[in-house]
C-alpha cells in the first residue's frame, strides 16, 4: 500500500512537471534555432548560484529559474501556503517535493506562454528524488557545481543584502581567506549598492548564522549526493570559484567554452 502510494505520488509529480517541460521542449524544436541550453546550477547556500546563473541566462538568452525565488515570492504573497512556507524556510529546511514541483511547473507554464525556450535551473533539483523526476521528463545538458570554502559561504550569507525595491543582491562582507595546503587564497570585495538602493536594503529571514549553518547541514545531507548522481552520468562540471565576480566570471566562461561567445556579444553591443 505504502509502495503504491509512493509510486502514485511520484507519477503525479512527474506528470505535472512533464507537461510543463514537454511544452517547453516542443517550442524549442519547433523553431529553427539550435537547441537552447537546459542547465542546472548546484552549490551550497551562499556560493553564488543566483549571480552566475543569472549572468549566464542573460548571455545565452534563456530564463534563469530559481526555485528559492519562487518560494520567496509565494511566501510574501499572503496566499494559502505562505505561513507554512515561511516556517520551513526560516528553519533552513527543505520545502516538500510536491510544493516545489507545483511552483516550478506553474513557472514553466507561464514561460511557455511567453515563448521561453531552454532554462538555467538554480536550486532545483535539491534531492535525488527531484533529480530522478527531472531526468524522467527532460534532458539536462550540463550541471555546474560551484564551490567555495565553508568559511566564505557563511560570511557571504551573513553579508547578503537585497534591495527591497529592485530586488538586486549586494554583499557587505569583505572575504579574505588565506591560502593553505597548496590551495590558493580567496579574496572577494564587498558588492556595494548604488545610492538608489543603499537606503532600501533588507536581509533575508533565513540568512542568520544559526539558519545558515542548518541550511549547510541540510545541503550536505540532501543535495550533496546529487554530485555523484550527475558525475556518474558524465554531466557534472566542477568549478572552484577563484574569488569575486571579476576573477570568477571570465574563468567560468572559459570552463564552459563560452569566452568567445561573450566577446562576440560585447562586440555586437
Ligand atoms: N528544490 C527545492 N526543494 C526544496 N526546497 C527548496 C528548493 N528550492 C528552494 N527551496 C526552499 O527555499 C529556500 C531558499 O532557497 P535558495 O534561495 O535556493 O537558498 P540557498 O541560498 O539556501 O541555496 C531553501 O532553504 C528551501 O527551504
TrEMBL record:
For this protein, the record's InterPro entries field holds: Adenyl_kin_sub, Adenylat/UMP-CMP_kin, Adenylat_kinase_CS, P-loop_NTPase
Task: Give the UniProt keywords, A-Z.
Answer: Kinase, Nucleotide-binding, Transferase
Q: Which Gene Ontology molecular-function terms are recorded?
A: AMP kinase activity; ATP binding
CDD domains in the record, alphabetically? ADK
Record bears the keyword Kinase: yes
Q: What HAMAP family does its record include?
A: Adenylate_kinase_Adk
Record protein name field: adenylate kinase
Q: Which organism is it from?
A: Carnegiea gigantea
Q: What is the lineage of its organism?
A: Eukaryota, Viridiplantae, Streptophyta, Embryophyta, Tracheophyta
Amino acid at each position: 500500500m505504502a509502495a503504491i502510494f509512493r509510486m502514485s505520488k511520484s507519477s503525479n509529480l512527474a506528470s505535472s512537471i512533464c507537461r510543463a517541460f514537454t511544452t517547453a521542449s516542443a517550442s524549442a524544436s519547433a523553431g529553427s534555432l539550435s537547441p537552447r541550453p537546459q542547465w542546472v546550477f548546484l552549490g551550497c547556500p551562499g556560493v553564488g548560484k543566483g549571480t552566475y546563473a543569472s549572468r549566464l541566462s542573460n548571455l545565452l538568452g534563456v530564463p534563469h529559474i530559481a526555485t528559492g525565488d519562487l518560494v520567496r515570492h509565494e511566501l510574501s504573497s499572503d496566499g494559502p501556503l505562505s505561513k507554512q512556507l515561511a516556517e520551513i524556510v526560516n528553519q533552513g529546511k527543505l520545502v516538500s517535493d510536491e510544493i516545489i514541483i507545483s511552483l516550478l511547473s506553474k513557472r514553466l507554464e507561464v514561460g511557455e506562454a511567453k515563448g521561453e525556450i531552454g532554462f538555467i535551473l538554480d536550486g532545483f533539483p535539491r534531492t535525488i528524488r527531484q533529480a530522478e523526476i527531472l531526468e524522467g521528463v527532460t534532458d539536462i545538458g550540463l550541471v555546474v557545481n560551484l564551490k567555495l570554502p565553508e568559511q566564505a559561504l557563511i560570511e557571504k550569507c551573513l553579508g547578503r543584502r537585497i534591495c527591497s525595491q529592485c530586488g538586486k543582491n549586494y554583499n557587505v562582507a569583505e572575504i579574505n581567506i588565506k591560502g593553505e595546503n597548496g590551495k590558493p587564497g580567496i579574496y572577494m570585495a564587498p558588492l556595494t549598492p548604488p545610492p538608489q538602493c543603499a537606503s532600501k536594503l533588507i536581509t533575508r529571514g533565513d540568512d542568520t548564522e544559526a539558519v545558515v549553518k542548518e541550511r549547510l547541514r541540510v545541503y550536505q545531507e540532501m543535495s550533496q549526493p546529487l554530485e555523484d548522481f550527475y558525475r556518474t552520468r558524465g554531466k557534472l562540471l566542477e568549478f572552484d570559484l577563484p574569488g569575486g565576480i571579476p576573477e570568477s566570471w571570465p574563468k567560468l566562461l572559459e570552463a564552459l567554452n563560452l569566452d568567445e561567445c561573450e566577446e562576440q556579444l560585447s562586440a555586437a553591443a
